[in-house]
Design goal:
2 copies of one chain form a homodimer. By secondary structure, chain A is of the alpha+beta class. Chain A has 5 helices and 6 strands, in the order ααβααββββαβ. A 3-stranded antiparallel β-sheet of chain A has the order 1-3-2. In chain A, about 25% of the residues are buried. Chain A binds a DNA duplex (30 and 30 nucleotides) through α2 and α4.
Chain lengths: ~150, ~150
DNA sequence: AATGTAATTGCCAACCATTTGCAGAAGGAT
DNA sequence: ATCCTTCTGCAAATGGTTGGCAATTACATT
């Protein structure tokens, strides 16, 4: 399992005393289907296709709410926009092509080792890890096979 | 040596056909002395102490220019502001306390290993690495010694 | 099913960091 | 010293995000 189902997510909402509105259900669906790489405006655009009356404020308000509840996370892929993704049980990191903007997710056991090492060395307890590796993908001339 | 001296930086400017202005010299000095964790507005404030006539536009324009030329880099410590630092020969990463906002820089050989591993696995050539580890520092209750 | 009520929405204006247009100032080659 | 072009300062524009408020809606209670 990589992330909560929309249904489970709604249960969390309820547990926090928040209401389950049509808009929230819709937004969760959109964020889920966006697979992690939609910004607020794109989420708004897609949500409108289902419900043309939804407002941009509602999108922002709910992205912030869901973020506070820890149900989605905000990703900084570039300096321009924040992207949103359902929060995974298993964290992942990003490999970003600076030419075509392709984003590839990765995970590696080295990350855990790094956390342990730095955590001990600097006396921190680490809760979240953000890693972005920026470069050129194979198609954009970055690989050694090119 | 960790980063270019201001003088060397100015040489790069000249080499790119850009002019060496008083404002640019001043901004480089401020960014250098800020040691990597000033946002645009703070840079503006400090620059004004030296030259009260400098404008915020000039600050932004030059931060962007210096960034394009690769002389400084933009760091996303939080969602609010971008911070700027002289670009180091040796990259470093950030350990951030979510409570007191303290930022500790770190480096580890594991990062190089991670780059090699992922680079090979995913066929990317990696140019830049951003790592932020967010958690609680010892003082804020995060350490195992508490 | 109808009611009460507090959370939520949509609309619109405000906000604030950043960018842009333009006229005047200044770097730097000659 | 002159000329040409880049750069600056100012002020207005931009664009993503937030906030106020009246109308709407979720949902617990009856």
């Amino acid at each position: 399992m990589t992330s909560l189902s929309d249904e489970q997510t709604l249960v969390v909402l309820r547990a926090q005393g928040r209401r389950v509105t049509l808009q929230r259900k819709l937004l969760l669906e959109v964020v889920r289907q966006g697979e992690g790489h939609l910004d607020a405006d794109e989420i708004y655009r897609r949500a409108r296709e289902q419900d043309p009356r939804i407002s941009l404020s509602t999108v922002y308000r709910n992205l912030n709410l869901l973020k506070e509840l820890g149900l989605i996370s905000e990703v900084h892929l570039d300096q321009e926009h924040h992207h949103y993704e359902l929060r995974d049980a298993k964290e992942h990191y990003h490999l970003i092509c600076r030419d075509c903007d392709r984003v590839v997710e990765f995970h590696s056991p080295l990350v855990g080792k790094l956390m342990d090492q730095i955590s001990g060395e600097k006396d921190f307890s680490i809760e979240r890890v953000h890693i972005d590796l920026v470069g050129l993908c194979g198609d954009c001339g970055g690989s050694k096979s090119g």
